[in-house]
C-alpha cells in the first residue's frame, strides 16, 4: 500500500524566501509528525498533530516555522524568511492514532538547501 | 529531558560478522525504544520497537534489547551482510514527548 509521501524531494531557495513543504500521510493515520535532520545531527522533533487536537508545537525552532494540517490529512510545513541554518532534510511521519506505543512510518524527506 | 546517545558513530565490519550497536538514554521512564534504519537519501524504516514492559524483540537476524535500569538498548545483527550497510538510529519515547533520536551509527559491511 501507499506509504508516507513528501514533496518536493529537493528544494533550493535563496535566503529570505519562504518555502512550503508538503506531507501526505498514510491513509487513515490520525497522527502526523514533522522532524528535521541537519547535517551531522540527529533527528529533531518539530511539530505533532493528532486528530482534531491542538498541535504540539514545542519543537519549532522559531516563529518563522509553522505547520498546518487540513482536513486531518495532508500537512504543510512553512518556513518564512529562510536562513542558511534552515538547510536540512525535513522528514514527515505518521502513525495510526499517535499512541506512545505505536510505530511511526516515515516519508523519504524533503532536502532543503538555502543559499 | 530525554537525551539519546549512540556509540560508535561509525562502524565497519567484514561480511558475516556478528555486531552490536549501542544506544543509551537518560530518562529511565521510557515508554518505548525504537530502532530505525536509514539508507542514504531515504527516509527511516522501523526495524524493532520495544515497549517498556519488554526486554527484547527479535526480527530475523536482528535482536534488540532494552534495559531501563541502566538506560541502555542494544541492536544485535547476526551474520552481517553488505545489504545491512546503512545508518541505524535509536529513538526513545517517554511521557507525552515525541520520539527523541540519537545521531545514529553508520554501519558499513564489507564484502
Helix and strand topology:
The complex is a heterodimer of chains A (115) and B (111).
Chain A: E1 5-7, E2 10-13, E3 19-24, E4 31-37, E5 43-50, E6 65-69, E7 75-79, E8 88-95, E9 105-106, E10 110-114
Parallel strand pairs in A: 2-10
Antiparallel strand pairs in A: 1-3, 3-7, 4-5, 4-8, 6-7, 8-9, 8-10
Chain B: E1 4-7, E2 10-14, E3 19-25, E4 32-38, E5 44-51, E6 56-59, E7 62-67, E8 72-77, E9 86-93, E10 100-101, E11 105-110
**Radius of gyration computed on alpha carbons of chain B:** 13 Å
According to DSSP, the number of beta strands of chain A is: 10
Ends apart, CA distance between termini of chain A = 37 Å
Strand fraction band of chain A?
A: over 45%
What is the tally of helical segments of chain B? 0
Mean pLDDT figure of chain A:
91
Main β-sheet of chain B: number of strands, strand sense, barrel status? Answer: 6 strands, mixed
Distance between the termini of chain B: 41 Å
* Oligomerization: heterodimer
Strand segment count of chain B: 11
Class by alpha and beta content of chain A: mainly beta
Describe this structure in words.
The complex is a heterodimer of chains A (about 120) and B (about 110). Chain A has strands spanning about 5, 10-15, 20-25, 30-35, 45-50, 65-70, 75-80, 90-95, 105, 110-115. Chain A is mainly beta and about 120 residues long. The termini of chain A are far apart. In chain A, β4 (about 30-35) and β5 (about 45-50) form a beta hairpin. In chain A, the strands form two sheets. In chain A, strands 2, 4, 5, 8, 9 and 10 form a six-stranded mixed sheet that branches. Helix content of chain B is about 0%, strand content about 55%. Chain B has strands spanning about 5, 10-15, 20-25, 30-40, 45-50, 55-60, 60-65, 70-75, 85-95, 100, 105-110. Classes of the chains: A mainly beta (about 120), B mainly beta (about 110). The interface of A and B includes residues 59, 91, 100 and 104 of A.
Amino acid at each position: 500500500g501507499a506509504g508516507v509521501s513528501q514533496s518536493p524531494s529537493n528544494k533550493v531557495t535563496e535566503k529570505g524566501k519562504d518555502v512550503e513543504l508538503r506531507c501526505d500521510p498514510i491513509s487513515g493515520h490520525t497522527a502526523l509528525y514533522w522532524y528535521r535532520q541537519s547535517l551531522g545531527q540527529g533527528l529533531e522533533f518539530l511539530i505533532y498533530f493528532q486528530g482534531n487536537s491542538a498541535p504540539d508545537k514545542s519543537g519549532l525552532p522559531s516563529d518563522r516555522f509553522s505547520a498546518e494540517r487540513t482536513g486531518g490529512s495532508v500537512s504543510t510545513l512553512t518556513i518564512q524568511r529562510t536562513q542558511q541554518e534552515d538547510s536540512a532534510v525535513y522528514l514527515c511521519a505518521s502513525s495510526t492514532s499517535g499512541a506512545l506505543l505505536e510505530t511511526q512510518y516515515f516519508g523519504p524527506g524533503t532536502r532543503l538547501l538555502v543559499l | 529531558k530525554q537525551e539519546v546517545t549512540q556509540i560508535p558513530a561509525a562502524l565497519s565490519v567484514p561480511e558475516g560478522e556478528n555486531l552490536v550497536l549501542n544506544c543509551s538514554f537518560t530518562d529511565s521512564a521510557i515508554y518505548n525504544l525504537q530502532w530505525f534504519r536509514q539508507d542514504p537519501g531515504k527516509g527511516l524504516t522501523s526495524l524493532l520497537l520495544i515497549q517498556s514492559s519488554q526486554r527484547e524483540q527479535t526480527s530475523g537476524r536482528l535482536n534488540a534489547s532494552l534495559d531501563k535500569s541502566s538506560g541502555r538498548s542494544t541492536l544485535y545483527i547476526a551474520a552481517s551482510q553488505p545489504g545491512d550497510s546503512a545508518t541505524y538510529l535509536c529513538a526513545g519515547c517517554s511521557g507525552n514527548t515525541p520520539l527523541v533520536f540519537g545521531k545514529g551509527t553508520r554501519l558499513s559491511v564489507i564484502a
